[in-house]
Amino acid sequence: MDSRELAEFRTVLDEICRWFAFEVGEYLGGVEVVLEHHVNRLVPLGASQLDSGWCAERGFREPSSQLYNDIRVNYRQKLRGKQLLQCLVRLLSAKGRSSKFSRANLLEIAAKSNEHKRLDSLAGAVRQRLHGREES
Prior knowledge:
Blueprint: H1 3-28, H2 39-42, H3 52-58, H4 65-73, H5 75-78, H6 81-92, H7 103-112, H8 119-135
C-alpha cells in the first residue's frame, strides 16, 4: 500500500473497530449481535465513518473506550479475519489502481507467506494424525 492507501486503511480500520466494539458490548449485555456485515456496508466506499443509516437501523451507540482501545490495539487477534480481508480487498482492488489484488490473490499471498512458520508443524501433525487413523 502507498501512504494514501495506508491512511485510508487505518481510517476504515478505526471505524470497523468501533463497530466491532459496539457488537461485543451488545453481546456482553445479552443482546443479539450481527457480525455478517460487509465492510462496505458499514463504511461505504468514499466514506470515512460508519454509515449513518446503518447506525440508526442498528441502534448504534459509542462503545466503551476501554473495549474499543483493546480491539483497536489488538485488531489482528480480535477482529474477524473476514472483515480485515474485506478492508484490504477494498483498497488493493480500487478503481484506478494500477496493480489490483482480488480476494483470491490476497488469500494465496497469505497462504504462501513465510509468516506461517508453524504451518509445516501443523501440517505434519495433521498428517501424523491421519496416518495414525489409517493404521487403526
